[in-house]
Specification:
By secondary structure, the chain is α+β, with helices and mostly antiparallel strands. 27% of the residues lie in helices and 36% in strands.
Length: 67
Amino acid sequence: MSKYLLEIGTEELPYRFIPQAIEQLKNGFEGFLKDNKVGYEKVDVYATPRRLAVIISGLETQTSAET
């Protein structure tokens, strides 16, 4: 199991958009991982007006074989 970090630098985001950005990133990454059958423990998203960060904990290093 490993961790994955994605950090995105942005122009200044208005504060009112940050909670929506956090929710969209979390839902988007969870959906992507599930659709592609990649195991993980949890997705955490952090944000400031100039940075967005996604940390995926417990990420499988390889996918299991489908039968």
